Amino acid sequence: MTRKTVLVTVGTRPEAIKMAPVIRALQADPDLDCRVLATAQHRQMLDQVLAVFGITPDIDLDIMQPGQTLSGLTGRLLIRLEEVLAAERPAAILAQGDTTTVLATALAAFYDRIPLGHVEAGLRTGDINNPFPEEMNRVVASHLTRWHFAPTQLAADRLLAEGYAPDSVQVTGNTVIDALHHVAAMNPDTGLDLDPGKRLLLVTLHRRENFGAPLARICDALERLMADNPDLQMVLPVHHNPNVRGVVNARFGGADRVILCEPLDYTAFVGAMSRATLIMSDSGGVQEEAPALGKPVLVLRETTERPEAVTAGVTRLVGTQTEPIRAAAQELLDDPAAYAAMARRESPYGDGKAAGRIVQTLRRDLL
User: Fold this and answer.
1) What is the DSSP letter of 363?
2) Mapping DSSP to helix (H, G, I), strand (E, B) and coil, where does residue 38 land?
3) pLDDT computed for residue 240 by the predictor
4) What is the DSSP letter of 169?
5) CA distance 282 to 298
6) Residue 150, beta-bridge partner list
7) Which phi and psi angles does 21 have, rounded to 5°?
8) Which of 134, 135, 178, 282 is the catalytic position?
9) Dihedral angle computed from the Cα positions of residues 23, 29, 35 and 36, in that order, rounded to the nearest 10 degrees
């Protein structure tokens, strides 16, 4: 039997984390030839994750440019992907999530009539502008997808309600739990000089819709929390985007009990999550990972496409206004019962076996 080639695209750190288990499962399959294409939409953070999982891209577009625009990035990706698909002629393409890499991959696959598998399909906020541009990216990708690999039943139900064929939608669980189990088992160190006598607040900020006034209000809340809780230490890995970096460095550079650091590699970040008392983030991945580690998450956004964890009571959507953020965090720091209610080590995102289910579906349909 001729081996079938499956091309896997990754462009950013979250994509690499969530696709690493799928890549490893494909590489272990004797009948499928996995080819990994890195667009390097985010160069440094992508490389960190691939190194953790021992993955070397077969093709590297190295597409990132300083100050890149969405239109410029999309155009460059489409041109380069067209060249790759002409040379590789894969039997199928896999992409994950809602980045510009995913949008361009879906369009290029459609133009070349190559079936697309969309990992983590079916996430929606219902607001095309929030998050921007991710909501548009995933909606468009869904229209061009052959296999919708939904992380939860709720995500699958959304796709079915939108009219996608039932035989194209499969609930697999979220591959981020596969990756998390793999790394957490290593008991990773943070590499940071943490004070063991203080509670740890871990914060991540990067969303475009939070640039400007929302980020300033979030920082106001963080400043008040640090002033009101002398037993608290804050770790804030500073995203490379200058819209984040300038504000955060100006607010917290040199502040007492605050560690500003470069974005942590994935093993160190899992170590930081494991040691945190409380996590505050606008990241999608953190909403999925931290509950599996028993860590409460306050989501610094106005909407979330991951309501399953909110419904389960292990994350809380607190928005971007200063006082609601501060009050929610202070409640968890002061009230052991409120904290215990969220810190239940419960994840609605699967059992860590999602990658195997995805590969089995590809085997069924390609071989």
Assistant:
1) H
2) strand
3) 86
4) E
5) 8
6) 171
7) -65, -35
8) 134
9) 10
Q: Which two tokens stand for residue 171?
A: 């609930």
User: Choosing from 98, 209, 265, 282, which is the catalytic residue?
Assistant: 98
Q: How far is CA 319 from CA 121, 309, 313, 315, in A?
A: 24, 16, 16, 12
Answer yes or no: 206 catalytic. Answer: yes
The pLDDT, as a whole number, for residue 342 is: 97
118 is catalytic: no
Tokens 């939108």 sit at which residue? Answer: 162
Give which of 207, 191, 353 is closest to 272, Cα–Cα. Answer: 191
| CA-angle at 188, arms to 296 and 43, nearest 5° | 90
3-class SS of residue 267: helix
Instruction: Give residue-wise pLDDT tens across range 145-181.
Output: 999 999 999 999 999 999 999 999 999 999 999 999 9
Token code pair at residue 183:
């790394």
From the candidates 206, 207, 217, 306, which is the catalytic residue? 206
| DSSP 8-state secondary structure symbol assigned to residue 265 | P
Write down the catalytic residue from 3, 181, 199, 208. 208
């203080």: which residue's tokens? 198
Q: Is the pTM of this model over 0.85?
A: yes
* Three-class DSSP category at 341: helix
The answer to whether 318 and 300 are in contact (CB under 8 A) is yes
Which run of H or of E encompasses 273? helix 266-275
Task: Give the span between the Cα atoms of 254 and 6, in whole angstroms.
Answer: 48
